Amino acid sequence: MNVEAPVMPYGFADLEPAMSRDTVVFHFLRHQRVCHDRLVTLTRGTPIAELPLEELIRVTERNPAQHAVYRLAAEVWNHDLFWRSMAPRGGGAARGALAEWIGAHFGGHDQFVRQFRAAAAEHFGSGWLWLVLRGQELRIVATSNAGTPLVRGDHALLGLDLWEHAYYLDHQNRRSAYVTGFLEELVNWDFANKRLQQALGRDARVRAPLPAPAPAERSARI
Questions:
Q1: Which of 95, 100, 118, 123 could disulfide-pair with 208, CB 3.0 to 4.6 Å?
Q2: CB 211 within 8 A of CB 135
Q3: C-beta neighbour count of 190 within 10 angstroms
Q4: Could you give the strand order of the β-sheet that contains 217-220, starting from the edge strand earlier in sequence?
Q5: SS3 string of 30-50?
Q6: Using 50, 70 and 90 to split pLDDT, how confident is the model at 203?
Q7: Are the beta carbons of 120 and 140 closer than 8 angstroms?
Q8: Do residues 162 and 127 make contact, with C-beta atoms less than 8 angstroms apart?
Q9: How far apart are alpha carbons 214 and 161 in whole angstroms?
Q10: How far apart are CA 3 and CA 35, in angstroms?
C-alpha cells in the first residue's frame, strides 16, 4: 500500500482547551485510522494499491464500482488536511499573504469570519467546510459526507470537519461553538499561507487580485 498510515502533527492534548484530548484521540483513532485500515484492506493486492493517495482519490472518484474506496481515501486525505489546519495557540486574524487575499476577496477578516460561520451553520448533515483557491479566487466551499476539493480542481488552504463526531464530545450539538473555537483559537494561518504559495507556484508573486467578494457555495454531495 502506497498510502502511509496517518500521523498527528502534534500531541493529542496540544489543542486544549479549545479541543479536548478525548475528542482528538477518539476522532483520530476511531475515524481517520479506521478509514485508513479499511482502505488498505479493500485495495490490497490490486493495481490501485500502489497509487499515491491523491491519485487514488481522483481515479476512484470516476469509477462507481470503486466508490467505497474513494470515500475512504477521501476521508483519510480530508482528515490529514484538517489536523494541519489547526495548531496549538493558533486562531485569530489571518496574517501573511493570505490576510491580503482575504481582504480582497471577502472585504476583511471580520467579513470572512461571518461568511465562514454562516456556511458552517447552513450546511445540513455531515461534511466539510473549506477555504480554497480556485483559479485566482478565494472561496468558502462546503462538501457533504466525504466530499473533497481535490476532485473539483480546487486547492484547499484550510479544512474544517463538520461531521458530528468532530465536536460532540466537547460541544454536544452546538456546531457554532466548535466553529468559533476553530477560528479564534485553532486555525493555522501559517499552514494556509504555505498552501497558498504552493498553489500559486514557487516563483509566482503572491499578490491579491481585487474581484468582488464571492459568497460561500452550497454543498456538493458525495
A1: 100
A2: no
A3: 13
A4: 155-161, 127-134, 137-144, 217-220
A5: HHHHHHHHHHHHHHCCCHHHH
A6: very low
A7: no
A8: yes
A9: 22
A10: 12
On the question of a cis peptide bond just before residue 47, with omega within 30 degrees of 0, the verdict is no
Write the single-letter amino acid at 85: S
CA distance 129 to 123: 9
Sign (positive/negative) of CA torsion 131, 160, 197, 35?
Answer: negative
CA 125 to CA 116: how far, in whole Å?
Answer: 16
C-alpha cell at 32: 481517520
Looking at every residue in the chain, the average pLDDT score rounds to 90
Q: What is the CA angle 205-211-216, rounded to 5?
A: 110
Domains of the chain: 21-84 (1.10.287.990), 97-220 (3.55.40.20)
Q: Please write the tens of the pLDDT for every residue from 55-96.
A: 999 999 989 999 999 999 999 999 999 999 999 999 999 999
pLDDT band for position 206 (50/70/90)? very low
What is the per-residue pLDDT for 216?
A: 58
Cell of 139: 472561496
Cis check: omega of the bond before 52, within 30 degrees of 0: no
